[in-house]
């Protein structure tokens, strides 16, 4: 998660600079809320595209992990979007959805359990394309 955070920070920084330049350095009032929505959507695109096209982000590739459905098949865009939104609730509840994994019988995060997804270790990753 630390590696993923570094990538997310880079994406947010770059996207934020673009937005900041477009609005001529004014992030007040309604523009501030628009900026927050913009960043939420930028991150949604990053995660949804990576999870639904290859099942992995760059850090997940490094750690030989991928996102799959409960039945082991690839997830689609809709399921990736659901997981993304649910992950925010896991995070905003003071991390309770992530702590859930310590008590879950399959060690799944709460948002994975609810979205019907799981993270698996991919032992045959050598010749398999995919991810971001």
Q: What features would you describe in this structure?
A:
The protein has one domain. It is globular. It has 6 helices and 2 strands, in the order H-H-H-E-H-H-H-E. With 132 residues, it is mainly alpha-helical. A two-stranded antiparallel ribbon has the order 1-2.
Gist?
By secondary structure, this protein is mainly alpha-helical. It is built from 6 helices and 2 strands, in the order H-H-H-E-H-H-H-E. The longest helix has 23 residues.
Please supply descriptive tags for the structure shown above.
mainly alpha; 2 strands; 132 residues; 6 helices
Rounded Rg: 16 Å
Count of helix runs: 6
Low-pLDDT ranges: none
Give the strand tally. 2
Mean pLDDT: 92
- The termini sit apart by 16 Å
Strand order of the largest sheet: 1-2
**SS-based class:** mainly alpha
| Major sheet description | 2 strands, antiparallel
Shape: globular
List the helices and strands and how they pair.
Layout: H1 2-22, H2 30-52, H3 58-62, E1 65-69, H4 77-92, H5 96-99, H6 110-115, E2 117-121
């Amino acid at each position: 998660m630390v590696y993923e955070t570094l990538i997310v920070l880079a994406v947010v920084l770059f996207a934020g600079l673009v937005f900041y330049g477009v609005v001529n350095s004014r992030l007040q009032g309604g523009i501030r809320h628009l900026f927050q929505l913009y960043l939420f959507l930028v991150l949604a695109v990053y995660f949804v595209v990576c999870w639904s096209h290859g099942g992995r982000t760059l850090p997940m590739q490094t750690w030989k992990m991928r996102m799959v459905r409960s039945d082991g098949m690839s997830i689609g865009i809709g399921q990736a979007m659901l997981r993304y939104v649910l992950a925010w609730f896991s995070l905003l509840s003071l991390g309770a959805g992530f702590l859930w994994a310590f008590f879950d019988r399959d060690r799944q995060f709460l948002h994975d359990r609810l979205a019907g997804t799981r993270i698996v270790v991919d032992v045959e990753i050598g010749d398999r394309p995919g991810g971001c």
